[in-house]
Amino acid sequence: MQTYLVGGAVRDELLGRPVTEKDWVVVGATPQIMLEKGYTQVGKDFPVFLHPRTKDEYALARTERKAGTGYTGFVCDASASVTLEQDLQRRDLTVNAIAKDANGELIDPYHGVEDIAQRVLRHVSDAFSEDPLRVFRVARFACRYHYLGFSVAPATMALMRTMAASGELEQLTAERVWQETSRSLMEQSPQVFFEVLSESNALASWFAELPPVPNPEYEALAKAANDNAPLETRMAVLCSGLTPEQTDTLLTRLKAPNVVADLAKMSARCSHTLMNSALQATDIVELFNNHDAWRKPARFAALLDTAGYLASVTRVNGYSSRRHALEQALQAANEVDVKAIVASGVKGPDIKKAVFAARCEAVAEFTVSLQ
Predict the structure, then answer these.
(1) For residues 26 and 2, is the Cβ–Cβ distance under 8 A?
(2) Which residues contact 171 (CB under 8 A, 6 or more apart)?
(3) Region of residue 256 (left: phi > 0; alpha: psi -120 to 50; beta: else)
């Protein structure tokens, strides 16, 4: 029984990046041996065990054979006879197919160290094409390591195009695609994820509503990432040029969380209004009403952020002053004493009308800056 550190921990150590988690592969063992040593089995499709003390994941070396469609149609062999080289060969990229033994020696049968030095993302073997999720994984790695100068090898890009043309990408589950997308959106250069998908002809498989690359929305997304904007803001920026219907279709397909979908649909509905339209007092109060700025001011602030990123790349003049005026208007509108209006004797539907009128009066002085 031999144990090796594999995958991302070895890759990131070689790149000088922090190692956040460690994965290990075990050669020459069986599930029974692992259990006898105190490991806890957690894998369902193939044997994965948790170390009794560190809780790191230890997987038995395995091979995989395609036996169906999608990313789940595999038959695994995790017998004690599987070698380390066979296990590494099933991995997606050469930079992820490097192992390190207990003495710190690297085992690199597929030249991942060389590809790290050359800043290339290259598939290990033609078996890469058996798992359609790998198209999205490569796009994610491309955006993660873009700042280091990594690019996708031409042969790997060609293989990804073949996979996109096969129709297998559509067989993936929304949960897995959203996982890769959301993780990519939170990288330093999230726009590269969509650039790689576009170059590999894979963008239409799950993101047909998005604009073609290049487009101002992708540039705005890069600015949002540079500001460390949260996930929902980044997705809203990406959807700001879509119609609300397109946004709803896209995010329903991806099964995006409600907090992400809500802001994205709001952005699609009113980003251009925030940037370009003259807003009178009634427009401003209706804007606050429609987006529940009273109860969810943080979400409304995120909506203003989204419009700001798009304004910055489309060179809309005066957005910062428009935003400031809207923020002042919201503060003034919030100071309207609703209880006092009710106490004045106004009843029924007239309460809503009176509150609306009072809020319009309160924000009237801020409309000039929004012209």
Answers:
(1) yes
(2) 69, 70, 132
(3) beta
Does the annotation flag 234 for ligand binding? no
pLDDT (0 to 100) of residue 77: 81
73 known ligand binder: no
d(CA 39, CA 96): 25
Is 23 annotated for ligand binding?
yes
Contacting residues for 307 by C-beta, under 8 A, at least 6 apart: 240, 267, 270, 271, 274, 275, 319, 323
323 assigned to a ligand binding site: no
235 neighbors 217 (Cβ within 8 angstroms)? no
119 assigned to a ligand binding site: no
- Write the pLDDT tens digit of every residue in 313-347: 988 888 998 899 999 999 999 999 999 999 998 88
Q: What distance lies between CA 31 and its chain's CA centroid?
A: 35
137 is in an annotated binding site: yes
Q: What is the pLDDT of residues 231-243, one digit of tens each?
A: 999 999 999 989 9
Which residues are bridge partners to 49 per DSSP? 41, 58
Q: How far is CA 173 from the centre of its chain?
A: 15
| Continuous segment of H or E residues that includes residue 106 | strand 106-107
CA–CA separation, 195 vs 203, rounded Å? 9
